[in-house]
Write a structure and sequence with these properties.
Structural class: mainly alpha
Order of helices and strands: HHHH
Number of strands: 0
Distance between the termini: 41 Å
Radius of gyration: 17 Å
Strand content: under 5%
Amino acid sequence: MIDLVAAQGGHAHIPTQRDRIVQRTVEPVLYRQRNLVERFFCKLKHFRRVATRYDKLARNFLAAILLAASRIWIRNYESTT
């Protein structure tokens, strides 16, 4: 997988497991940003309409994603202020 990303000109920031002999280095800042994105998609999949994709039209599905993302953002924003 990492070779495929590198072949397309990207940089994979996937840490190795501790029991591997060859350890890849991962920048902590990039890994933290990647983790935030993964956690956001996990929260987004908690919305049943998004996870199961009930909508047939792409525009309706995108609207459902935007509504769910707005609810996640508002919930996060309200809890920090």
